[in-house]
Design goal:
The complex is a heterodimer. Helix content of chain A is 84%, strand content 0%. Chain A is mostly helical. Chain A has one domain (11-185). In chain A, helix 2 packs antiparallel against helix 5 (152-185). Chain B is an all-alpha fold. The chains are: A mainly alpha, B mainly alpha.
């Protein structure tokens, strides 16, 4: 089976990612409470939804497909993930930190500070899995699929790594939902 | 598509660069959380500095491990790692800019920026390595 050609990193995606980061910088520079809440909630919701959907819905579906079908779906899905995830994560964290400074929740004396530190830990573990396992597997599977003769064993191995990591991250996002709602409601 | 071949066993001859890289990242994450969790109080920097040094040692160990692999596909590694380095330098730069803009100064800023440098090097290294280990000439 030969896969049609595709871009590992879609150029249109890079433009949109750049626009999102410009928006983020503008929000941070303006420093208004509304803009920071908007950026943190919008990007954070995107991050949570994508992780939950990838980990708990798409992941198991991918795992049950035949290797050619998995390769075809991955060829269309994975290049988008390469651009979307780092953008969502960076924007959520930067806007969240700014918001925490404005609300005072990052200060160790704040009553909700324990929950904020818990979010640092959960996000830290998620970042570790995403940066160390998920992102390298994502790029490597795309480059394998670009080869004239992709090796199905390599694709299978890397996709399993991607799917398991996405599943664990998806479950951890539930913890983030609990922590964030607790911080907001008090 | 090729028939299932012995690509995976071939890939297994490589050293545990990803595991070492994840440990290195975990160390700077712990250091970063330690510093962030105590803001705005000033806390002893020694634990964060020790974690940062250990993380840098693991980054260097990773480069050494790769250099010792006979016939390591460096060209493939560089092809991928350079673009990842560009992307992660942008994200690290953005986070560093926010720290500076927020008035973080002194030893805490130095440790956090150095941690971001390790992050911006270690992640592309792991991405480049993961691609290179499955390279077939």
């Amino acid at each position: 089976m030969t896969l049609p050609d595709f871009e590992v990193v879609p150029r249109v995606g890079l433009i949109l990612s750049g626009a999102a980061l410009v928006l983020l910088v503008a929000g941070v520079v303006s420093g208004t409470y509304w803009s920071l809440v908007l950026l943190h909630v919008a990007f954070g919701a995107g991050w949570t939804i994508v992780d939950l959907f990838m980990g708990l819905i798409i992941g198991p579906i991918l795992g049950s497909l035949s290797i050619p079908a998995r390769a075809e779906l991955s060829r269309r899905l994975m290049p988008k993930m390469v651009v979307i995830m780092p953008t969502l994560v960076t924007a959520t964290l930067v806007a969240g930190w700014q918001l925490g400074l404005k609300m005072g929740t990052v200060n160790s004396g704040h009553p909700m500070h324990g929950w904020v530190v818990a979010s640092y830990i959960v996000v830290g573990v998620m970042a570790l899995l995403a940066l160390g396992l998920l992102e390298p597997a994502n790029i490597a599977v795309l480059i394998e699929m670009k080869k004239p003769q992709p090796d199905p064993m390599v694709i299978d191995r890397l996709m399993k790594r991607f799917v398991y990591s996405a599943g664990v991250i998806g479950i951890m996002q539930v913890a983030i939902l609990v922590i964030m709602t607790k911080i907001r409601v008090g | 598509m090729k028939t299932p071949a012995a690509a995976a066993p071939e890939a297994d001859r490589f050293p545990p660069v990803v595991q070492v890289g994840m440990t290195s990242l975990a160390l700077i994450l712990v250091g970063g959380i330690y510093l962030a969790a105590h803001l705005p109080e000033s806390v002893p920097l020694a634990p964060a500095v020790a974690l940062l040094i250990a993380s840098v040692v693991l980054l260097l160990a990773n480069l050494t491990l790769m250099a010792r692999v006979p016939g390591f596909p460096w060209r493939r590694f560089v092809d991928v790692a350079k673009w990842a380095l560009l992307a992660y330098t942008i994200t690290a730069g953005l986070i560093g800019w926010v720290f500076i803009r927020d008035g973080l100064r002194g030893g805490t800023l130095v440790v956090l920026v150095a941690s971001l440098v390790v992050y911006a090097l270690q992640v592309p290294l792991m991405i480049g390595f993961t691609v290179a280990r499955y390279h077939r000439s």
